[in-house]
Amino acid sequence: MTNCIFCKLINGSIPTKIVYQDEDLFVFNDINPKADVHLLLIPKKHIESMLELTDADQDLMGKMMITANKLALLHGLNKGYKTQINTGIGGGQEVFHLHIHVFGNR
Ligand code: 5GP
Ligand code: ZN
């Protein structure tokens, strides 16, 4: 998606500090953090929002949740943390590339 800011972070046309990536996922710090730790986990595949998910995305979404937990623990959030997925205009989504917010205070 050429006009998607998160796809530009994935393909490097906009530079960002990469927290984690693998063949499916890309993780970076939110530009406007709302907690000590505020990660954004996104699939490398452009999916606009949860509204677009199909059965074919089952493994990907499972991997996103498990990776969110691993990264939260790596960031010292072993007492717990908050996750948030805003979906669509009705859910307050502002960037239309599916993402999981991970919030935590140390
Ligand atoms: P949403 O409301 O769509 O769930 O949240 C989008 C999030 O993306 C916001 O928390 C916002 O601060 C973050 N964000 C928007 N543009 C950029 C950017 O260019 N770089 C980074 N790192 N975060 C961004
Ligand atoms: Zn995208």
From TrEMBL:
Alphabetical list of InterPro entries matching this protein: Histidine_triad_CS, Histidine_triad_HIT, HIT-like, HIT-like_sf
Residue ranges annotated as motif Histidine triad motif: 97-101
Catalytic site positions: 99
Highest taxon above the source species: Bacteria
Molecular function terms, GO-annotated: catalytic activity
Domain annotation HIT: ranges: 5-106
Listed Pfam families: DcpS_C
Family matches, as PANTHER family: HISTIDINE TRIAD HIT PROTEIN
Protein name: Histidine triad nucleotide-binding protein
Organism: Aquella oligotrophica
